[in-house]
Amino acid sequence: MATAPQDGITGVGPYEHRNGTVTLFVYLAIAVAQVRMRRKLERTEPERLTLKMWLFPWLSRLTIALMAVVIGAMAWLPDSRSRFWLSLLTVAVVPAGYELRRRMGPADAV
Q: Which of 6, 48, 66, 67 has the smallest C-beta neighbourhood within 10 Å, fewest atoms?
């Protein structure tokens, strides 16, 4: 039975690395959206914010900065550069596919 090649350090194949990188991009988008939405709610509807977030906004900003450093290191380091570009391509293709599907309209039922 054939198996996917694995790296010599972690024993993880290339597809798992790419999935982890895409997940990092998703977490980054969630963190940025959380800061933006919380700021908007603080201005418009502060009564809806019933849960106090620890060290807001500094902890969120630190988290965003650290994720950006990890992504930047992946782009810079030769061993992870191909995974970075494949993940970036995936992150670009998914919203483009969604937009194309949205413009085409709903598919007719068969």
A: 48
